[in-house]
Structures are given as C-alpha cells and as structure tokens.
Amino acid sequence: MALYAKEIAKLQRIITLAEKLIAESPSPKRGRPASHNGSGAPKKRTNEKRVRRTGKALVKFRKMLKEKLKKGVSVAKLAHEQGISRTYIYQIK
C-alpha cells in the first residue's frame, strides 16, 4: 500500500500527538478502586466477621427486633447496635 506524502505527514502528526498524550497522562493507579456506598463516601470496613445465625437463633433475633421496634427504638439505633443494615430491619417488619 503506497502512501502519499500528505498522508505520511498526517500519520506522523497523529503519532506525535498520541505520544504527547501518553507522556502527559498520570500514571495509572494499581489495585482495586475504593468501594463506595450510595452517598459517594468510602464504605467503612470492620474487622468483625459476619454472624451467621442458626434457624432458632434467627427466629429469636427477629422476634427481639420486632419487640424493640414496638417499644419505639429507632431503626438506625437498632441497626447500629446489632451490626445490621437498616434495610434488613425494614424487611423484617
């Protein structure tokens, strides 16, 4: 494939432009990006392991949550105390 002088000049300009862009761009960050929750703030990581409750313990736990909700304890306070999400409490309701 033969190229004309104008085409070669255009290709050389494209190559120099690409080289400039590569030189000016910041170095890529390595690793996984920080995970974020819906608000844009980074998620808080806890060192505690998740708790998997047995069937009987789960029934007891749900019953206790419902009783506290009837007493007027806020969902946010319950979620913080028990280490569960507010949405999980709303699902139990």
Structure characterization notes:
With 93 residues, this protein is mostly helical. It has a domain at 64-93. It has helices at residues 5-24, 55-71, 75-82, 86-92. The model has no long low-confidence stretch (mean pLDDT 83).
Brief sketch in words of this structure:
The chain is an all-alpha fold.
Topology pattern, helix = H, strand = E: HHHH
**Arithmetic mean pLDDT:** 83
Described by the principal axes of the CA atoms, the overall outline is: rod-shaped
Q: Name the beta content range.
A: under 5%
Keywords:
mainly alpha, 93 residues, 0% strand, 4 helices
Helix and strand topology:
Layout: H1 5-24, H2 55-71, H3 75-82, H4 86-92
